[in-house]
Amino acid sequence: MALFMDVHTMDGPVGLGDVEQAHAADLATQGRYGVNYRRYWVDESAGKIFCLVEAPDADAAVSVHREAHGLVADAIFPVAEGS
User: Rounded distance, CA 53 to CA 76, Å?
Assistant: First the structure.
């Protein structure tokens, strides 16, 4: 399975609680697409959200976001995990 980092840019500040709810929706949806949303990071004041996801391909990861809550990322990048 490939590893991806996606980036969301909101129109203004974003609350951690809102992102927690969206992540929970991703977790409830991901199994249908063979995806595993592993972690996320939030810059609340800048309205930036970063998601780390294992997926068969980028389209599967995007499909989970689209179905779960409609907040599709601005960009998605294949990444390799380091320590």
Answer: 10
Token pair recorded at residue 36:
């595993």
Residue 34 corresponds to which amino acid? G
Given the structure tokens 């409830």, which residue do they identify?
Answer: 28
CB atoms within 10 A of CB 75: 10
- Report DSSP letters for 9-73, one per residue: E-SS---HHHHHHHHHHHHHHGGGGT-EEEEEEEETTTTEEEEEEEESSHHHHHHHHHHHTS---
User: In the prediction, which pLDDT does 83 show?
Assistant: 82
Six-digit token string for 80: 């390799």
Q: What is the pTM of this model?
A: 0.92
CB atoms within 10 A of CB 7: 13
